[in-house]
């Protein structure tokens, strides 16, 4: 379907210089990224989790910026019909389109300005992440900590999805807001549950943050419950945004992407500078997910050791207890930050090593050369394991990763035999449990573990 839409809020009033900047960028090298992200937003609810297939299915889709006296409009052609109701685009999807415009075109240009951000330093990268989040109006001062980050897979069972809604409901009853990767499955369920909890408690300011990045958005199209969407430039900055804005993290069952997120956070918490910093981390799911978390726990024990296991607790089939533990943990976070003068809305005190911030490009060469051995500090091993799972995600659902696999064959993952055995077992369990692709789709592994 074709339409033209106008922005609301911050992008409703733009200077002539800003309009010209948007026009220049949209017709330059950023256009393809802008187009693919916009198409992903419009494709919400389609059941498609393949970035390459999405682009090929809508080859005639086009989106362009139309300049007018009062600012801009977006001219959309060949959009998926599911984004419309009676010929009118769904309001939440309209908002998400302008979030794409704001972040991909406007903010990308600013972050690329070396005079403003030194992306060669850890401080410069964190400052850039802060700037993107602030520009998206995600950071709220004078608000007590209450943001719960929920991680988990887009391909989960019906029982697991229902459980994520129950946990979200319990969190909503306690006034907690929700932040997820913004897609379907375990990213949508907690938000859906929280809206009911908020409604019962007459919370009218509930916040449902969706944090994504260009490479993954096509596979995890933002669900319309998200009322604050932000697109970070890459997966590393996306992960940093999660742990900087979140006051607690709840992990539901998932696949390689969820393993990547777990390893990222554990690697950060294992850094000596973060030893005293409170960061509630809970793994949870229904009774049917007990074996899943047992496998995750065994993998962490075999690779990162018992110190890593101390940083989380596993709660099975008890949504109320999960919410109670989160609530109690966030109280400790508030006390800690208040005592040290740290902001409630952005965790500046959290030490993030440069190895967790450097963008990792999952090429075949880079995947082969990952340092997956125990002859290094544990938090650095976690960083490299995170990269390995990031590569698997790219090969599964990201456009560039899928094309690289088609051209060059499987990614080869090499390392210590014990680590490789544990990784192979965990990945095989994800495949057996249909966690790599949406149900009903045959999965062909994009990787080969070399033991």
Q: Topology, please?
A:
Blueprint: E1 3-5, H1 16-26, H2 31-42, H3 51-57, E2 62-68, E3 71-77, E4 84-85, E5 88-89, H4 91-111, H5 122-135, E6 147-151, H6 158-173, E7 177-180, H7 189-200, E8 208-212, E9 228-231, H8 235-245, E10 248-251, H9 256-269, E11 281-285, H10 290-303, H11 306-309, E12 313-316, H12 319-340, H13 364-368, H14 378-397, H15 399-408, E13 411-414, H16 417-432, E14 447-450
Parallel strand pairs: 6-7, 6-10, 7-8, 8-9, 10-11, 11-12, 13-14
Antiparallel strand pairs: 1-3, 2-3, 4-5
Domain Pyrimidine/purine nucleotide 5'-monophosphate nucleosidase N-terminal: 3-110
Pfam families: DUF4478 (PF14793), Lysine_decarbox (PF03641), PpnN_C (PF11892)
InterPro entries: LOG_fam (IPR031100), LOG_family_nucleotidases (IPR052341), PpnN (IPR049788), PpnN-like_sf (IPR037153), PpnN_C (IPR021826), PpnN_N (IPR027820)
Short account of what is shown:
The chain is α/β, with parallel strands linked by helices. Helix content is 46%, strand content 13%.
Structural overview:
This protein is α/β, with parallel strands linked by helices. 46% of the residues lie in helices and 13% in strands. It is built from 16 helices and 14 strands. The strands form four sheets. It has a seven-stranded parallel sheet, sandwiched between helices. Helix 6 packs parallel to helix 7. The model has no long low-confidence stretch (mean pLDDT 89).
Task: Fill in the keyword field for this structure.
451 residues, alpha/beta, seven-stranded parallel sheet, three-stranded antiparallel sheet, 14 strands, globular, LOG_fam, EC 3.2.2.4, LOG_family_nucleotidases
């Amino acid at each position: 379907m074709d339409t033209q839409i106008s922005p609301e809020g911050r992008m409703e009033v733009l200077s002539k210089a800003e309009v010209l900047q948007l026009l220049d960028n949209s017709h330059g090298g950023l256009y393809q990224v802008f187009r693919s992200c916009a198409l992903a937003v419009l494709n919400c609810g389609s059941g498609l989790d393949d970035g390459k297939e999405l682009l090929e299915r809508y080859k005639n889709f086009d989106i362009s910026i139309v300049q007018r006296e009062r600012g801009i409009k977006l001219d959309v052609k060949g959009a998926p019909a599911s984004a419309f109701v009676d010929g009118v685009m769904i309001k939440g999807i309209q908002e998400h389109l302008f979030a794409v415009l704001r972040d991909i075109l406007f903010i990308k240009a600013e972050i690329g300005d070396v005079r403003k951000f030194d992306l060669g330093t850890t401080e410069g990268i964190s400052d850039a992440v802060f700037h993107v989040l602030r520009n998206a109006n995600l950071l709220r001062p004078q608000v007590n900590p209450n943001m719960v980050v929920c991680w988990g897979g887009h391909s989960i069972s019906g029982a697991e999805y229902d459980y994520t809604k129950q946990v979200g409901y319990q969190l909503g009853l306690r006034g907690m807001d929700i932040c997820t990767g913004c897609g379907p499955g375990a990213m949508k369920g907690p938000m859906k549950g929280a809206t009911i909890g908020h409604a019962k408690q007459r919370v009218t300011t509930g916040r449902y943050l969706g944090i994504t990045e260009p490479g993954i958005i096509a596979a995890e199209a933002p669900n319309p419950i998200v009322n604050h969407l932000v697109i970070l430039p890459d997966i590393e900055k996306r992960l940093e945004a999660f742990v900087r804005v979140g006051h607690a993290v709840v992990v539901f069952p998932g696949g390689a992407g969820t393993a990547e997120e777990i390893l990222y956070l554990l690697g950060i918490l294992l850094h000596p500078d973060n030893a005293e910093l409170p960061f509630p981390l809970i793994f949870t799911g229904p009774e049917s997910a007990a074996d899943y978390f047992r496998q995750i726990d065994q993998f962490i024990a075999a690779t990162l050791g018992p110190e890593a296991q101390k940083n989380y607790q596993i709660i099975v089939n008890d949504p109320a207890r999960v919410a109670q533990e989160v609530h109690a943990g966030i109280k400790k976070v508030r006390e800690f930050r208040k005592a040290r003068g740290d902001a409630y809305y952005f965790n500046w005190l959290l030490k993030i090593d440069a190895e967790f911030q450097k963008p990792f490009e999952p090429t075949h060469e880079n995947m082969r050369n990952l340092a997956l051995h125990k002859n290094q500090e544990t938090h650095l091993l976690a960083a490299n394991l995170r990269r390995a799972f990031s590569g698997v995600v790219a090969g599964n659902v990201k456009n560039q990763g899928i094309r690289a696999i088609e051209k060059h064959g499987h990614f080869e993952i090499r390392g210590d035999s014990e680590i490789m055995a544990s990784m192979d077992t965990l990945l095989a369990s994800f495949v057996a449990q249909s966690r790599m692709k949406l149900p009903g789709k045959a999965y062909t592994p994009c990787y080969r573990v070399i033991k």
